[in-house]
Design brief:
By secondary structure, the protein is an alpha/beta fold. The chain contains eight helices and ten strands. A hairpin with a 4-residue loop joins strand 2 and strand 3. The longest helix is centred in the first third of the chain and has 17 residues.
Length: 291
Amino acid sequence: MKFDEAYSGNVFIAAHPHYEDAEVVIYGMPMDFTVSYRPGSRFGPKKIREVSIGLEEYSPYLNRELKEVKYFDAGDIPLPFGNPERSVEMIGDYVRKILNDGKFPLGLGGEHLVAWPIIQEVYKKYPDLVVIHMDAHTDLRTDYEGEPYSHATPIRKVVELMGGKNVYQFGIRSGLKEEFEFAKEYMNFYPFEVLEPLKKVLPTIKNRPAYITIDIDVLDPAFAPGTGTLESGGISSKEMLAVIHEIANSGIKVVGADIVEVAPVYDPADQTAILASKMVREILLGWTQNQ
């Protein structure tokens, strides 16, 4: 994929045609090789772009328009199907280039393992980084069925890299007992809820750069059925948007983000992809202005 050329496929609505003078780079990671239940999230980035045509370019929540942000859609990284180790390496190389060019990386997954190489690269650039993780699942296993490269392991890898007290988990409602005990002891752990605990946390991290990773299954399946590992009892789409706006209005320095685990094959109405697309719009307008 050449950074200086516009993506030849469908692009996110109103994307800027040139990489060089863009402030934000949207990129897809079509990988679902290690999922523990239902595959299909490799088609998420394409579908999120496709349904974005139905969005208005104006956000009434933030009173901003997409034309106010220069963002480039670089398309999907051409990952080698079935090779998670090489895919993780390629994602890291890709994101390193974006960061070195001083741009905001906004990734679309793909399974949640894709967040691991991104956070590695962001942490290299910002050693005082904090990670905000919103998910139904802890993702704190050291391995899944003996495999360390799994969508059940990325946050454990992050904790081992940068320390659990630099990682904040919200909305978690599923995992092994051992994972919950680990999170309670070593991390900033806020299970079941997102918005209210987030409001309390944001002022405490205002002076630090933050990377935000969102698994779409943090939402209840009623609002986001198109994902691989459904977990009842999640937040609503209205609350998800409120969370994005709370972060936008907090003044914290967001230095990158991703939305993962959208699997469109399980959602014939496209409501999950439409939600994710709207989330991308609000992130573009709300989080990239405080760099």
